[in-house]
Design a protein that fits this description.
The protein is of the alpha/beta class. It is built from 13 helices and eleven strands. A nine-stranded parallel beta sheet has the order 2-1-11-10-9-6-5-4-3. Strands 7-8 form a two-stranded antiparallel sheet. Strand 10, helix 10 and strand 11 form a beta-alpha-beta unit. 3-hydroxy-3-methylglutaryl-coenzyme A (HMG) binds next to helix 5, helix 6 and strand 6. Magnesium ion binds next to loops.
């Protein structure tokens, strides 16, 4: 049968806002994070300590985390943040952050575009970053991008993704998040990829799935992941998101769509749907455009 309980890993403030054309004021970001926590989301990825020239939308990462720490104390330090390298880790550690995520590419082209590294040399950047974080007792997540298809290279072989994922695990990463960065995954491909990881000795509790909804397949893909026993799913409130270095990436799976779907299956998630919808509707007002989520449109008021 399907798992009885799922963890929703909220990425709206990071994956959602990194791609927004309008610059979102820091206090609005802080309110967004806090509202998501209040809605019962157990994990809210708050921002990225990447190069501010590469992702200017998140250049206020330190200011945001300082403000959130003033409001939330230790709860803010538990929020995961992206760090591409040791410089990013230093910035996160300075603020007392305890959960970080590195992000790798499964393809050569995207490694170059997103990280300014080759597929091989990205690991030289991650190795000391992950080692230092683990040595300090931090929890490290490892994203793998372009796990299904890549806009420049086409379909990505399952074995290539498993090889990248296993190298991250060998470096000391706790959980892998397998990203369908451009939203081209289909259910059969999801099952094949998860099965390949399991066959390579990686249990499903080390895996999370990260879908973008370009072809409207994200929930079907979650269902495929559930059938394979994966219990952590990334989602973004209101379906915000994309990737600034992958032009064809559209929004993430909307948190609301995922919550509605899991509730329908009787799977425990702990999230208050109305509170997330209210948050996304408010955020849509801040951004000046409606949410692409069907559930937000069905349940939202303004
Ligand atoms: P680089 O230019 O190769 O960096 O960028 P470098 O190591 O050569 O350093 C150059 C300068 O940048 C140095 O300064 C560094 O200190 C500085 P200088 O000595 O010249 O004055 N620098 C930094 N400053 C602040 N924070 C840092 C940092 N690192 C170096 N962390 C780098 C390499 C990785 C930094 C750059 O390519 C980068 O920031 N990339 C981030 C791209 C990004 O954020 N993409 C979106 C996230 S991934 C995603 O969305 C996919 C995901 O959602 C899953 C999915 O959907 O698949 C996760
Ligand atoms: Mg993403």
């Amino acid at each position: 049968g399907l798992p009885t309980k799922v963890t929703i890993y909220e990425v709206g403030p990071r994956d959602g806002l990194q791609n927004e054309k309008t610059s979102v004021p820091t206090p609005v970001k802080a309110e967004f994070v806090q509202r998501l926590l209040q809605a019962g989301l157990p994990i809210v990825e708050a921002t990225s300590f990447v190069h501010p020239k590469w992702v200017p939308q998140l250049a206020d990462a330190a200011e945001l985390m300082t403000g959130l720490t003033a409001d939330l104390g230790d709860r803010a330090r538990e929020l995961p943040v992206l760090v591409p390298n040791e410089r990013g880790l230093d910035r996160a550690v300075e603020l007392g952050m305890r959960h970080v995520a590195v992000f790798a590419s499964a393809t050569e082209t995207f490694a170059e575009k997103n990280l300014n590294r080759t597929l091989e040399s990205q690991f030289e950047m991650f190795a000391p970053t992950v080692a230092r974080a683990v040595a300090q007792g931090m929890d490290v997540r490892g994203y793998v991008s372009m796990c299904f298809g890549d806009p420049w290279e086409g379909a990505v072989p399952v074995d290539q993704v498993v090889a990248v994922g296993k190298r991250l695990l060998d470096l000391g990463v706790g959980q892998l998040s397998l990203g369908d960065t451009i939203g081209v995954a289909t259910a059969g491909h999801v099952r094949a990829l998860v099965q390949a990881f399991v066959a390579a000795g990686v249990p499903t509790d080390r895996l999370a799935l990260h879908f973008h909804d370009t072809y409207g397949q994200a929930l079907t893909n979650v269902h495929a992941g559930l059938q394979e026993g994966v219990t952590t799913y990334d989602a973004s409130a209101g379906g915000l998101g994309g990737c600034p270095y992958a032009k064809s990436a559209t929004g993430n799976l909307a948190t609301e769509d995922l919550v509605w779907f899991l509730t329908g299956l009787g799977i425990e998630h702990g999230v208050d749907l109305a509170a997330v919808v209210g948050t996304s509707t408010w955020m849509a007002g801040q951004l000046g455009r409606p949410s692409p989520s069907a559930v937000v449109r069905a349940l939202g008021s303004a």
